[in-house]
Design brief:
This protein is mainly alpha-helical.
Length: 90
């Protein structure tokens, strides 16, 4: 995967996703990679921005290079369980 300079450069994401992530305090691709899709999604959700689970699928796909619809279809259950676990710990 070529190096991306901004979140909007990642697959499945664009300027709107970049603005949502910035409002959550996630401003770089490296920061997104360090957080992971679930933690980044929780930050976005808690930032007061109206987000859906499609953002979680898109974030995971951006980090793994998989189309967000494939993520939603194949990894939905594991991501929802990880989200539930993350929210329980925080």
């Amino acid at each position: 995967m070529p190096k991306q300079n901004s979140i909007a450069d990642l697959p499945n994401l664009g300027p709107k996703s970049q603005r949502v992530m910035a409002s959550a305090g996630v401003t770089s691709v490296e920061q997104l990679r360090q957080l992971g899709s679930v933690a980044a999604y929780v930050l976005a959700k808690r930032s007061g921005t109206n987000v859906s689970l499609n953002l979680l699928w898109a974030l995971e796909g951006a980090l793994t290079g998989v189309h967000w619809q494939e993520v939603a279809r194949v990894h939905r259950t594991s991501l929802l369980l990880a989200l539930e676990e993350h929210e329980r710990r925080v």
